[in-house]
């Protein structure tokens, strides 16, 4: 399905439908919800497509603690079907209209607040994060696994390039925006050697983006050799061996590593990869978003090698803008479309989650616009 397909409008008296997360490994509860009146600056979208992010899977399995009940799903694209009073502008200060196909920052925040002024809007105290909020009857449509999503004022909106498919566009506002943020924090990459740790969706995005940012070599480390091999289609030039000795030789022959983009969150991989950094190297950690043991790091080595370690959680709106521009330009250069291997209807969300737990799938998609309350829910 392409974003240029025919447009839809909100029907009078239309109700929203959602699949609500009740707790780890429990059945999702189907709910019909009224569509609340929009306040000034708010937008209602009909969800066109959503993908199950790895962090949704962590919540579903209990590895990550999330509120319950909760409407999950944050990798979402939608079509604007209603707008609150007054004019609503997108990130580029262009007017939003009914019929626009959009993505949006994973969170709404106070643009005038202190954290926004610090350049850390994702940590604003009032932040409202789509797909992560406790279920609230005053604003129930807060996630992607529903027919509609109610966007708060303070959400940065972006019109989508119509050349993208649903499957390409849905992961933009989590996966690709996070990697765009990691590249921003890593600094310039021209002529540098990059190591991407973890070859899941984030890692593959990192391979393609670092390649297009001028990296000289892009090595990939993943314990799953099939996943690691897939990275060559996304620009990776070196697939690191499982053997520690061979791995060290591969790193030495490429001239060491200047930048690490760490997406796995696996302590052993985080520790090992630091050994490969050259003097002055920068490591950006984005994968460790679930509970894990403390790391063992040799501080003297960090000091003597002038190593910088940075953490990134979520991203800033400019990163989503970078990600959209990257994908618009390069979506045909890399097989992003193929990373969403299967699409389930919303009413089969539970089945989709069980299916998505198999690590051979990068993303499973949820198609919501043909939802019918007469179907069975699993
Ligand atoms: Zn995510």
UniProtKB/TrEMBL annotation:
First and last residue of the signal peptide: none
SUPFAM superfamilies, per the entry: GroES-like, NAD(P)-binding Rossmann-fold domains
Its EC number(s): 1.1.1.1
Entry-linked InterPro entries: ADH-like_C, ADH-like_N, ADH_phosphonate_catab-assoc, ER, GroES-like_sf, NAD(P)-bd_dom_sf
Residue span(s) of domain Enoyl reductase (ER): 23-366
CDD domains linked to this entry: MDR_TM0436_like
UniProt-listed SMART domains: PKS_ER
Family: Belongs to the zinc-containing alcohol dehydrogenase family.
Descriptive protein name: alcohol dehydrogenase
Organism: Algoriphagus marincola HL-49
Name of the gene encoding the protein in the UniProt record: hpnZ
């Amino acid at each position: 399905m392409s974003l240029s397909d025919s447009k839809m409008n909100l029907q009078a008296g239309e109700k929203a439908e959602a699949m609500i997360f009740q707790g780890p490994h429990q059945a999702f509860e189907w709910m019909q919800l009224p569509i609340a009146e929009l306040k000034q600056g708010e937008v209602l979208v009909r969800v066109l497509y959503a993908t199950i992010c790895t962090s949704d899977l962590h919540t579903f399995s209990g590895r990550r603690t999330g509120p319950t009940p909760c409407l999950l799903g944050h990798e979402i694209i939608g079509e604007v079907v209603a707008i609150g009073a007054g004019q609503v502008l997108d990130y580029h200060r262009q007017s939003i209209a009914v019929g626009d196909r959009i993505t949006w920052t994973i969170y709404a925040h106070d643009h005038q607040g202190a954290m926004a002024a610090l350049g850390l809007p994702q940590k604003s105290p009032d932040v409202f994060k789509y797909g992560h909020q406790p279920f609230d009857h005053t604003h129930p449509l807060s996630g992607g696994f529903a027919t509609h999503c109610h966007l708060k004022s303070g959400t940065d909106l972006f019109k989508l390039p119509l050349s993208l498919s649903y499957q390409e566009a849905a992961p933009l506002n989590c996966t690709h925006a996070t990697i765009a943020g990691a590249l921003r924090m890593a600094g310039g990459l021209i002529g540098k050697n990059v190591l991407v740790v973890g070859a899941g969706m984030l890692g593959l995005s990192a391979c393609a983006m670092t390649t297009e940012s001028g990296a000289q070599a892009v090595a990939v480390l993943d314990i799953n050799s099939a996943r690691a091999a897939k990275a060559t289609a996304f620009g990776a030039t070196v697939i690191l061996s499982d053997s520690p000795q061979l791995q060290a030789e591969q790193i030495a022959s490429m001239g060491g590593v200047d930048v690490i983009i760490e997406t796995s969150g696996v302590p052993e991989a985080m520790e090992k990869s630091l050994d490969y950094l050259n003097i002055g190297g920068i490591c950006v950690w984005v994968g460790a978003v679930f509970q894990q043991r403390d790391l063992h790091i040799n501080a003297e080595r960090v000091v003597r090698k002038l190593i910088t370690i940075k953490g990134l959680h979520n991203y800033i709106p400019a990163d989503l803008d970078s990600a959209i521009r990257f994908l618009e330009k390069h979506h045909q250069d890399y097989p992003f479309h193929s990373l969403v291997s299967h699409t389930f209807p919303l009413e089969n969300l539970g089945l989709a989650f069980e299916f998505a737990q198999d690590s051979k799938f990068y993303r499973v998609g949820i198609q919501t616009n043909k939802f019918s309350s007469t179907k069975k829910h699993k």
